[in-house]
Design goal:
This protein is of the alpha/beta class. The chain folds into 2 domains: 141 residues, serine acetyltransferase, domain 1, CATH 1.10.3130.10; 84 residues, Hexapeptide repeat proteins (UDP N-Acetylglucosamine Acyltransferase, domain 1). The protein contains 8 helices and 14 strands. Helix 2 packs antiparallel against helix 3 and helix 5 runs antiparallel to helix 7. It is globular, with a radius of gyration of 22 Å. The termini are far apart. The relative contact order is 0.08.
């Protein structure tokens, strides 16, 4: 391709691309929502309830504007979608409160819920996932992925916005966790760093199929475990040990682990 053809092709492509707000603007909107819910993350304090309500209304209008700009739903009333999303914010807040409680109760190192909200990458990733999932349920494209990929870039925790995750969700440490699109996770589930809940195959024709695992209530999955496949179910009250590789279902109340062959040699005994 010569340079003239190259520049013409890029120019023509730019003319076809619709104006989309920057990722920074979109993630900034979500950050403001989260910081309104949890002022532990914000320096701004409102003087009256009315001021707080007005700020939520501003964010609702901003969401509508962002969806209009991204042509998020061509056949939908974006004003009504934004209103419906914010009507669900009290439920979102209740869900996030259960996640905070799960992290605080489940981590001996946590000294306060304030510390969880302010410093824990697991809560940061979960909060962005909860907002993104709320938008995803209204069939809003693009925005949910922008939000969860932003959290991914900040924490190393990759949660697809379409995943279904119950209340009291606890991510401990978190770096390297992957939760796939069609995952279903129950209540009171705890994941450690490096856990993958993935697919057996990445074939494109598997889109829109259940290709990621189901994890039932009260399951703990330790670091480095890999669980694959849409038909794989981890039964309730099970414990999955570190570095376990699973492609088949596990009955409820199971403990799954492997026995590594490790030899410790003390050179001082020679």
């Amino acid at each position: 391709m010569d340079s003239k053809t190259f520049y013409r092709e890029i120019f023509d492509k730019q003319q076809r691309v619709e104006a989309v707000p920057s990722n920074r603007e979109i993630t900034g909107w979500a950050l403001r929502v989260i910081r309104l819910l949890y002022p532990e993350q914000s320096e701004h304090i409102f003087n009256t309830v009315h001021e707080l309500q007005e700020e939520f209304l501003k964010l609702e209008n901003e969401l509508c504007r962002i969806m209009d700009a991204t042509k998020a739903c061509r056949d939908c009333d974006n004003e009504q979608l934004a209103k419906a999303f914010f009507e669900e914010v009290p439920h979102l807040y209740q869900l996030l409160n259960t996640d905070i409680q799960a992290i605080f109760n489940g981590d001996p190192a946590a000294r306060s819920e304030f510390e969880v909200v302010r410093t824990y990458p697991g809560f940061f990733a979960i909060s962005f996932y909860r907002v993104a999932n709320g938008l995803y349920k209204y069939n809003v494209p693009l925005l949910p992925r922008i939000l969860t990929e932003y959290a991914h870039s900040k924490t190393g925790i990759d949660i697809h916005p379409a995943a279904e995750i119950g209340e009291y969700f606890h991510i401990d440490h978190g770096t390297g966790i992957v939760i796939g699109e069609s995952c279903k996770i129950g209540k009171n589930v705890k994941l450690y760093q490096g856990v993958t809940l993935g697919a057996l195959s990445v074939a494109k024709d598997m889109a829109f199929t259940k290709r990621h695992p189901t994890v039932e209530d009260n399951v703990v999955i330790y670091s480095g475990a890999t669980i694959l496949g849409g038909e794989t179910v981890i039964g309730h009250n099970s414990i999955i040990g570190g570095n376990v590789w699973l492609t088949k279902s596990v009955a409820p109340n199971s403990t799954v682990y492997h026995k590594p062959a490790i030899t410790v040699y003390n050179k001082n005994k020679d």
